[in-house]
Fold:
Amino acid sequence: MLALGAIDYIASDTLPQILFNRVKNHIKLVKHTKELEQVSKTDGLTGIANRGCFDSQLALDWQMTMRAAGEISLIMIDIDHFKHYNDEFGHVKGDECLTLVAQCLVATKKRTTDLVARFGGEEFVVLLPFTDLQGAKKIAHNLVNDVNKLNISHAADAKHPNITISAGVVCHSPTFDAEINFAIKDFINQADVKLYQAKTYGRNQFCS
Structure:
């Protein structure tokens, strides 16, 4: 009963109906609390994990891989020329595009331990605990190809007639001798640098 959230003291002579109603109310309360927690972790537009959820999960996965002497990888993703797309087709179509790309990224994810999240604006991240660089590069390759296959028309981009993404891929083996918050921030920054390289090299690709 405690696991369900029954916090009131219940006397042994409590009437069955009163007991039933009290437990029922507590179950509703626990369910509502869990629903609120889920909403707080979800991006309101795309329905996938939000930045706060990503930050929390990265901290947990970082410590977990550190204790296991494992590797953790991160893919930082940006939709190419998304501002031009918004200017050409409007924000409603822009929101639809963000949602379609988000769903595509989630569909490409194979393991329940991996996390796809909206990082902000048109940027997304894929967190891959216990994944080496080669494994992360394969996933990034699939992500770039799968978004291409969505065939979302992008008339404002002469070079790429459909919506494409660029991605930066990094891998790290967390160690106990590094300050965690600084190491995590540097990890994200490294992925962002690789993403910038992918854009510099022509977009619609990943760099690692």
Remarks:
- Strands lie at 72-79, 115-120, 123-129, 165-172, 206-207.
- Residues 16-40 form the longest helix (25 residues).
- Residues 89 and 154 are 9 Å apart (CA to CA).
- Confidence is low (pLDDT under 50) at residues 35-39.
